[in-house]
Design goal:
The chain is an alpha+beta fold and 151 residues long. It contains two helices and six strands; from the N terminus they run ββαββββα. 21% of the residues lie in helices and 38% in strands. The two termini are 28 Å apart.
Length: 151
């Protein structure tokens, strides 16, 4: 199963930063076992939401020629739980990297303004066409960002 953890893209500053939202629904299958009768969104899923948002930043900034693949989490701190019914505010920005072939991002997730995770992670860019149909991803981004662009 593939988890799509970004429900909406709110802002995009191409090549620099992006913000989005993840709505946590009680019907999400990962909540069934994490934990039985006490559902909490797994912290690793919050981190994955930030990584996916980084992918959208790279895609939209490169006319959908590139996607980000994480290779290493440099720092990650958790500050509280995310529960069903929460709307998670996601933000990711590009951080300085030691080389052109390596990308580093800094991200955070909040619920009602309260920080739940802060992370820094690195990885590489790959060609979008190697993993997805480019035109389909453009259309999907258009839905996520609520744009009226004709892609």
């Amino acid at each position: 199963m593939r988890y799509l953890l970004v429900d909406r893209i709110l802002t995009l500053d191409a090549g620099n930063k992006i913000t989005g939202v993840k709505n946590v629904a009680m019907s999400e299958d990962f909540l069934e076992f994490h934990f039985p009768k006490n559902p909490i969104m797994p912290g690793i899923m919050l981190l994955e939401a930030l990584v996916q948002l980084s992918g959208w930043l790279e895609a939209a900034s490169s006319d959908f020629r590139k996607w980000f693949l994480v290779s290493r989490v440099l720092k990650c701190s958790f500050y509280g739980f995310v529960f069903p019914g929460d709307q998670v505010e996601l933000s990711v920005s590009v951080a300085p990297a030691p080389s052109d072939d390596l990308k580093i991002y800094s991200g955070a997730a909040r619920v009602n303004g309260k920080r739940k995770i802060k992370a820094e992670f690195q990885g590489n860019l790959i060609g979008m066409e190697t993993i997805e149909e480019v035109e389909e991803q453009k259309k999907f981004f258009q839905i996520l960002a609520r744009t009226n662009l004709r892609l």
